[in-house]
Amino acid sequence: MIKQVYELTAADLERYPIWVFPMDQSVEDEASVRPVQPGEVVPDGLQTIVRCVFRDRSGRELPGYLYASGVEKVE
Predict the structure, then answer these.
(1) How far is residue 29's CA from residue 27's CA, in Å, rounded to a whole number?
(2) How far from each other are the two terminal CA atoms of the chain, in whole angstroms?
């Protein structure tokens, strides 16, 4: 299943918590992502979207995602 990153929904991230930008012949453009299957090893260098939960100061949980690129800095 290939989707555009801006089309990902909360349900997509619930079903597949990790998505990658494959950057090969299987994708339309640089905004295309695919889910990582259980047990699949993500090759080094691929940018990823990872489901996570943020907590605010009051402890309320906020669903979201991180965009991980392997760079050792936070933006």
Answers:
(1) 6
(2) 29
Asked whether 6 and 32 are in contact (CB, 8 A), the reply is no
Q: How far is CA 34 from the centre of its chain?
A: 9
Contacts of 22 (CB under 8 A, 6+ apart): 32, 33, 34, 46
State the burial class of residue 48 (Cβ atoms within 10 Å of its Cβ: 0-12, 13-18, 19+): middle
Per the structure block, which two tokens stand in for 11? Answer: 């349900």
- Encoding tokens for residue 55? 């907590």
22-60 pLDDT, tens digit each: 877 776 788 899 999 999 998 888 889 999 999 999 999
pTM value is 0.81
